[in-house]
Design a protein that fits this description.
Strand order of the largest sheet: 15-16-14-17-18-13-21
Enzyme class: hydrolase
Number of strands: 27
CATH topology of the largest domain: tt1808, chain A
Catalytic activity: Endonucleolytic cleavage of DNA to give random double-stranded fragments with terminal 5'-phosphates, ATP is simultaneously hydrolyzed
Helix content: 40-55%
Number of helices: 35
Largest sheet: 7 strands, parallel
EC number: 3.1.21.3
Family: Belongs to the HsdR family.
CATH architecture of the largest domain: Alpha-Beta Complex
Shape: globular
Radius of gyration: 31 Å
Keywords: ATP-binding, DNA-binding, Endonuclease, Helicase, Hydrolase, Nuclease, Nucleotide-binding, Restriction system
Length: 986
């Protein structure tokens, strides 16, 4: 039995794990790993089950729910209960996850005698009451594919955790890919029990990761459906626990696993299941334990009853604070939890984030009167309140006799910086008598960056105000070094550009700050910086490949431009507007700042009236972009919309002064342009707007500086990391990556001459895939460097990529057909980053029509087969090229429209005939889909298109598979023609 884990309710994350010494062992295959894992789980108190199939799993569920609910089902009661609550086809993953993640959720059993009894599937109040079993090699032969699952952990009979194992030495991503395949083939295809899975674990023995179940029912692809979001477990000192043996003794310790399932998961408002990372759980547990101890010994009301959490920006502090707030409200002696921010824009952002985790769990306050009502309310749904420090300070002054001052209150300060160290903070903590105070920050204030804020300490001496002196000891730390090492946030690529050497040289002389800023505002400098940004924007944000047309828009990222003052922001916005108009560019640039001095938003402004008028005009420009109706009177709504447009990638570039540089999180931002002096915590906060993980294309936060911030950057990284932080937090220089890239290109050309394709040897195929994978990864990094010029010419790159995609399609088909697993990994997401879109192909088709140049035709064909999203349209494009050749005198637009309409009708009629579909209903259904640009593949309406299926036919006749096949064909038809119809409409 593992004695390293404290078996009590308070600790899920062990303080420091003593790693098991690893002795040299014989080769381990998947079967060896599986036997080892099950033996370890048995030693920890799991019951091993010998189950062969899904039916036996169902029978075991009945026994376990009887045990949990202290009941015995009659056969009739069980059949009805199972059919309605477990195997009901109207229930999907979302519904079943709600059953498990809602504290108050119960199911109703109608007993044979007419009485009713509440049934729970999991005991969330007392997690250790749940019963754990482990089963391996369970067969699922209910659908088209015959799958056998490695290891499943049953909680009260339900498979809530699934573990996929690969032999040592195999790429861990292959285990992830196999789970994705199981999800597609059987987990979420009417498999009543495996729709309950909450956590997936993947391991090759050496490396082990976990992640939450992907929600396949969302119309948008879940972020969990990406290998980048797999998590490593660790102890409270952030030592990663990767080996399967160590992971089993920690993460899978009975109480730990049950705590994670019942306390440290969040099923958010977007119907995505989130699992907290180890450092988040550790921080939450430290705070709750601190509150319990301080309450027990009654030493609340000072910093001894509090502390601060130092978690790197971008590491998920809001989720940690949310779950901590929820757990604090469950302590019966806590009256309220107040989540305090220092600016009204963060008030809105926090409310929105909390609402994502659980709608209505927290309450924002519009004014002091509403704060009073909520803070004195006894309603259970008003126990968590989000407010600004300004409103809380006014409440303290205005309502001197409120009864809340004698209640036990938890204060959680978000981003506890200097703005929360002043008089308002002192007024608040003096008034409340029984408080517990906690701060969250990614960049603490130490003496070195404390400025000139002092207070009188207990010895009557002046002492600098720091995070520790204001909030208490650091309860848990997870620095930017930890976050980047764990791949929870991305490193930064920082470039420094000398924009106007003569001006900057002159500024080295001792002149005032005002004169310096005035010189930097020169028209010539602003024009050059703006021009540079526009020329490189698509490359910086990965919106176009090297061989695309200028201004050709594709999927990518967006950017923020941090400027030194409102005057800078105004001048840059004017210059961008001017150059965008000159270049006929469709780039959308916005600007936002506070146009008046106030204590919430402290932007530097020379002329408040001018700033106000200018912003009013900029908002009108914004309205013209997005057909909206914002104004200065609706500034808060404008702010909220800008925030959402950034997250949705509808706004390409936002010019700011201070807004959006702290507290704003958007995974879609990858670039920060900086014409502003930054240092210490302000610098790292601003940089960190760019380094949220999104997908495999986003490999770093791209920082482009137009001031010399190199020393400031190094000092900041040393302060919040250590002396060696730069080597971890910052990418290497251009030469480091380019030298590797050139070596790989030479190896590719020497070993795989294009004349020798296709490759028939499996050994050659695997070696080619491996080399090309590495080329794609390096190219993804190098594309951000201004110096990068690809030594591989465009045509050769397209040809190699075509062969790569052909191998991908062939091997994928082989894997699915033979139901086998291959260790090959394909970097398809990195290819998609550089995809040519349909707009560009249509442009080339029209150019070919006009010029009849063979090289354009060749380019079209090469481009088509070298891009994943165009390969299925290859025949269509080739046919249209022949149409052009045979109809030189026709109008191009009419030729294109008539051809596409004719092909669309021909293929649809053929599909209707082949599959015996209802012609009238099918055409109406697809007409609506093309009109809405959305294909709905579920619901009664689509069922009405399909041929009648004999309801009495045995399942083996493949009714479900036939239905799925028809729907897939209809959707493929829709996808094939929608892109051309959409382009034509535009």
């Amino acid at each position: 039995m593992n004695d390293l884990i404290t078996q009590n309710d308070n600790t899920t994350i062990v303080t420091e794990y003593k790693f098991t010494p690893k002795e040299p062992k014989a080769y381990q295959n998947e079967e060896d790993l599986e036997k080892f894992l099950i033996k370890e789980l048995e030693l920890q108190g799991y019951e091993k089950l010998e189950l062969n199939n899904i039916l036996e799993l169902e029978n075991n569920l009945k026994l376990q729910l009887e045990r949990l609910n202290n009941i015995v089902f009659s056969q009739e009661e069980w059949q009805k209960f199972y059919k309605e609550n477990i195997a009901n086809k109207k229930l999907n993953f979302e519904d079943k996850t709600k059953m498990l993640q809602n504290d108050s959720f119960t199911l109703t059993l109608e007993k044979d005698d007419g009485s009713k009894k509440n049934i729970i599937l999991i005991d969330r109040i007392n997690p250790i009451n749940n019963y754990l079993q482990v089963v391996s090699q369970l067969k699922n032969e209910s659908g088209k594919f015959k799958n056998r699952y490695d290891v499943s952990i049953l909680v009260n009979g339900l498979p809530l955790v699934h573990i996929e194992l690969k032999r040592r030495g195999v790429n861990l991503k292959e285990a992830f890919n196999q789970i994705k395949r199981y999800q597609k083939e059987s987990f979420l295809q009417g498999n009543a029990l495996y729709e309950f899975v909450q956590i997936f674990i993947i391991s090759n023995g050496t490396l082990t990761k976990y992640y939450s179940n992907t929600n396949q029912y969302k119309t948008k692809k879940s972020l969990n459906d990406n290998y980048a979001f797999c998590m490593s477990f660790s102890d409270a000192k952030n030592n990663i626990i990767e080996d399967l043996e160590d992971f089993t003794k920690t993460f899978l310790a009975k109480r730990n696993l049950l705590n994670i399932l019942t306390k440290y998961c969040v099923f958010n408002a977007d119907n995505e299941l989130l699992i907290m990372r180890a450092y988040q759980i550790a921080a939450s547990e430290r705070i709750i334990n601190k509150i319990k101890i301080a309450h027990k010994y009654k030493y609340y009301g000072n910093v001894e009853a509090g502390g601060f959490i130092w978690h790197s920006t971008g590491s998920g502090k809001t989720l940690t604070s949310f779950k901590t707030a929820i757990l604090a409200t469950k302590l019966d002696f806590i009256k309220k939890v107040l989540f305090i921010v220092d600016r009204k824009d963060l008030d809105y952002q926090t409310q929105k984030e909390y609402d994502k985790f659980e709608k209505g769990a927290a309450n924002a306050t519009k004014n002091t009167d509403e704060l009073k009502r909520r803070i004195e309310s006894t309603k259970e749904d008003e126990k968590i309140i989000i407010t600004t420090i300004q409103k809380l300070s006014k409440f303290v002054q205005k309502y001197d006799n409120s009864r809340i001052f004698d209640s036990e209150i938890v204060f959680i300060f978000d981003e506890c910086h200097r703005s929360q160290f002043g008089k308002m903070h002192e007024q608040i903590i003096k008034k409340f008598k029984k408080y517990y105070i906690f701060g969250f920050t990614g960049t603490p204030i130490f003496e070195e960056n404390a400025g000139k804020n002092y207070f009188v300490n207990d010895n009557k001496n002046l002492e600098l105000k720091t995070t520790q002196s204001t909030f208490g000891d650091c309860l848990h730390s997870y620095t930017i070094l930890n976050a980047i090492k764990d791949k929870n946030v991305l490193p930064f690529k920082v470039s420094y550009h000398s924009t106007m050497k003569q001006i900057e040289s002159d500024l080295d002389k001792k002149i005032s700050t005002i004169d310096r800023e005035s010189s930097l505002l020169s028209d010539e400098r602003i024009e050059k910086i703006t021009s540079y940004i526009l020329e490189n924007f698509n490359r910086h944000t990965k919106r176009q490949s090297a061989y695309m047309l200028k201004n050709q828009r594709v999927q990518g990222f967006n950017a923020i431009f941090a400027t030194a003052s409102v005057d800078f922001a105004k001048k840059y916005y004017e210059e961008f507007s001017k150059q965008l108009k000159q270049n006929n560019s469709n780039l959308k640039v916005g600007v936002i700042y506070s146009y008046e001095q106030n204590e919430d938003l402290d932007e530097f402004i020379n002329d408040t009236q001018s700033a106000k008028e200018f912003l009013s005009k900029a908002i009108k420009d914004y309205n013209s972009y997005f057909k909206s109706d914002f104004s200065l009177e609706k500034f808060d709504n404008y702010y909220k919309d800008v925030s959402q447009k950034l997250k949705d990638k509808e706004l390409d570039l936002l010019i700011v002064v201070n807004m959006f540089l702290t507290g704003f999180d958007s995974k879609t931002i990858n670039t920060l342009y900086v014409d502003k002096n930054l240092k210490y915590h302000g610098l790292l906060q601003a940089f960190s707007r760019t380094n949220r993980i999104l997908n495999e294309q986003k490999n770093c936060g791209n920082i482009v500086c137009f001031r010399d911030l190199e020393n400031a950057t190094n000092k900041s990284l040393q302060m919040f990391g250590d002396e060696k932080a730069s080597s971890i937090v910052l990418l290497e220089n251009f030469a480091f990556y380019f030298e590797k890239y050139v070596v790989l290109i030479d190896e590719l050309k020497q070993k795989f001459d294009l004349l020798n394709f296709p490759l028939y040897s499996e050994k050659e195929q695997k070696e080619f895939i491996k080399i090309f994978n590495e080329i794609l990864k390096l190219e993804n990094i190098l594309s951000l460097f201004d110096e990068f010029k690809n030594p591989l010419n465009i045509r050769d790159k397209q040809d190699y990529q075509s062969h790569y995609l052909e191998l991908y399609a062939t091997l994928k088909q082989k894997t699915e057909k033979e139901n086998i697993n291959d260790d090959l990994i394909f970097e398809i997401e990195l290819i998609k980053q550089n995809e040519i879109n349909v707009d560009f192909i249509l442009f080339l088709l029209e150019e070919y029509y006009k010029t009849n140049q063979d090289k354009i035709k060749e380019s079209i064909l090469k481009t088509t087969i070298s891009n994943p999203s165009l390969r299925d349209k290859k025949e269509l494009i080739e046919e249209f090229l022949n149409e052009i050749d045979n109809n030189k005198n026709s109008d191009y637009k009419s030729l294109f429209e008539n051809f596409m309409q004719r092909k669309k009708e021909q293929e649809l009629n053929q599909l209707i005939k082949e599959e015996n579909l209802n012609e009238k209903l099918t055409k109406e259904y697809l007409d609506d889909a093309f009109e809405l640009n959305f294909f709905q593949d579920k619901g009664e309406r689509i069922g009405g298109l399909l041929p009648a299926i004999n309801p009495f036919a045995p399942k083996s006749e493949g009714n479900d598979e036939k239905r799925e096949s028809i729907i897939n064909k209809l959707k493929a038809f829709f996808d094939k023609f929608m892109v051309f119809l959409k382009v034509d409409d535009e």
